[in-house]
């Protein structure tokens, strides 16, 4: 089973709250949304886009969003921090990556081009419709966000004494 930021965030939540919740491994994580809607599992931590059809069908309800800010697509759903569970907070980072030696001027040009293309109102609207919070920070902002996320995951790894299964 591959562990990602969602699993580590949830494990950190368990450790912070002193809980032990049985976890169900999925080959295809999208099946967990259906299982939640059918009552086969009690809780799922998944992106809004993957849960959208079950939410719209009224089979499930969103309890919290894991971002630091509320999602525009679900303004009535509190953040994890607002609900009293700061250990569930994690920013979903999506960005463009390049080789390590990519010149800074080129990074800045790419960032500017993305902002220009995104000036078309349809682009951010389509992203928001899937629950994404659009943030057009530059390369340095993205690097800082990744570093902060790595530090949080490293702290969780230490807190739960994580040992990879080989």
Please provide a written account of the structure.
There is one protein chain. This protein has 166 residues and is mostly helical. Helix 1 crosses helix 6. The longest helix is centred in the C-terminal third of the chain and has 21 residues. The chain is globular and about 50 Å long. It starts with a helix and ends in a 7-residue tail after the last helix. The model has no long low-confidence stretch (mean pLDDT 88).
The count of DSSP E runs of length 2 or more, i.e. the number of strands, is: 0
What structural class results from the helix and strand content? mainly alpha
- Percent in strands: under 5%
Tell me the number of helical segments per DSSP (H or I, 4 or more residues long).
6
Q: What pattern of helices and strands is seen along the backbone?
A: HHHHHH
Largest sheet descriptor? none
Mean pLDDT: 88
User: What would the principal axes of the Cα set say about the shape?
Assistant: globular
pLDDT below 50 for ≥5 consecutive residues: which ranges?
none
What is the percent of helical residues?
Answer: 40-55%
Please state the CA-atom Rg, rounded to the nearest Å. 18 Å
Cα-to-Cα separation, first versus last residue: 10 Å
